[in-house]
């Protein structure tokens, strides 16, 4: 196929490298930064640079931009995609993207499919893109009830070609609810955690838990703020829940209520044990 990848950052660049390493598809790249395009061409991540006017040559277009920019790009170029082709995004929220892009492209005879590669690092940009970024990761696909099965199968196969370990089919709504808990809340908590006045007084005082909890505090604020806003209700639900839970721990400590504190800690430990069994994880 001719595959156009719009946005050659960490994820878009890694998609290009993974496809070039594992398939014979012709990869066409679009990026606003000329230096990024030069790098992608130099290392063979893309076969050619194209402009938006050549999107009609693509059987599949992968839009790897920030959430608001994805919708803007699809609206701007709706008439340029090839009729019968597939357009997919790789954004970390799905309801906002799918609900805005699907009706626009339906009118043009173009199939839109929302996807989310569950992979990444705390870094961003093409310089950190790798062909093995998706190895063994989950690839979430969020079709609508009207998405043709042949298009879902094609995108699933593409995920397998990039060495994703698991393809998960979900509704956009279920995706956003789950991702608010498993990813977005974790980034908010980590980012808030490092704002303690104790941050620069703790050198030599961590055996690893500090690094584990603060790794994703190093984030791309432009991208993540957009993701949070596009998934507002689900993010607020998770934030409200953890605030209530932390308040229970705080109250127990303040009141020196050891029995309650012990019960809270025990309950959390037991839930973690159950989750490890549920997800097939081993205790380290």
Question: What does it look like?
Answer:
The chain has 284 residues and is an alpha/beta fold. Helices cover 50% and strands 13% of the residues. An eight-stranded mixed β-sheet has the order 3-2-1-4-5-6-7-8, sandwiched between helices. Strand 1, helix 1 and strand 2 form a beta-alpha-beta unit. The chain is elongated and about 70 Å long. 35% of the residues are buried.
Keywords:
single chain; 284 residues; alpha/beta; 8-stranded mixed beta sheet; 50% helix; elongated
How would you describe the oligomerization state of the chains in this entry? single chain
Helix/sheet category: alpha/beta
What is the makeup of the main sheet?
Answer: 8 strands, mixed
Helical segment count: 10
Q: Give the topology string: H per helix, E per strand.
A: EHEHEEHEHEEHEHHHHH
Secondary structure tally: strands:
8
Mean pLDDT: 95
The share of residues in helices is 40-55%
Report the span from N to C terminus. 44 Å
> What fraction of residues sit in β-strands?
5-15%
The main sheet orders its strands as 3-2-1-4-5-6-7-8
Name the overall outline. elongated
Low-confidence stretches are none
Radius of gyration: 21 Å
């Amino acid at each position: 196929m001719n595959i156009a990848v719009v946005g050659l950052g960490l994820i878009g660049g890694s998609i290009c490298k993974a496809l070039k390493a594992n398939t014979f598809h012709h990869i066409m790249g679009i990026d606003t930064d000329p230096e990024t395009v030069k790098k992608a061409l130099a290392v063979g991540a893309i076969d050619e640079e194209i402009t938006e006017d050549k999107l009609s040559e693509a059987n599949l277009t992968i839009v790897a931009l920030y959430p608001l920019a994805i919708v803007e790009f699809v609206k701007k170029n709706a008439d340029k995609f090839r009729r019968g082709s597939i357009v997919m995004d790789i954004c970390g929220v799905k309801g906002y993207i799918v609900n805005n892009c699907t009706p626009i492209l339906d009118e043009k005879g173009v199939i839109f499919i929302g996807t989310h590669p569950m992979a990444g690092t705390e870094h961003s940009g093409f310089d950190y893109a790798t062909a093995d970024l998706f190895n063994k990761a989950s690839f979430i696909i969020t079709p609508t009830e009207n998405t043709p099965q042949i298009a879902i199968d094609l995108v699933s196969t593409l995920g397998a070609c990039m060495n994703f370990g698991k393809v998960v089919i979900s509704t956009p709504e279920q995706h956003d609810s789950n991702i608010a808990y498993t990813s977005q809340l974790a980034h908010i908590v980590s980012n808030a955690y490092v704002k303690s006045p104790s941050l620069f007084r703790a050198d030599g005082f961590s055996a690893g838990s500090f690094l584990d909890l603060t790794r994703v505090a190093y984030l791309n604020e432009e991208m993540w703020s957009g993701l949070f806003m596009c998934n507002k209700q689900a993010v607020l639900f998770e934030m409200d829940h953890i605030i209530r839970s932390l308040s229970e721990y705080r109250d127990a400590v303040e009141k020196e209520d050891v029995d309650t504190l012990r019960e809270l800690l025990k309950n959390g430990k037991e839930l973690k044990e159950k989750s490890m069994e549920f997800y097939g994880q081993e205790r380290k």
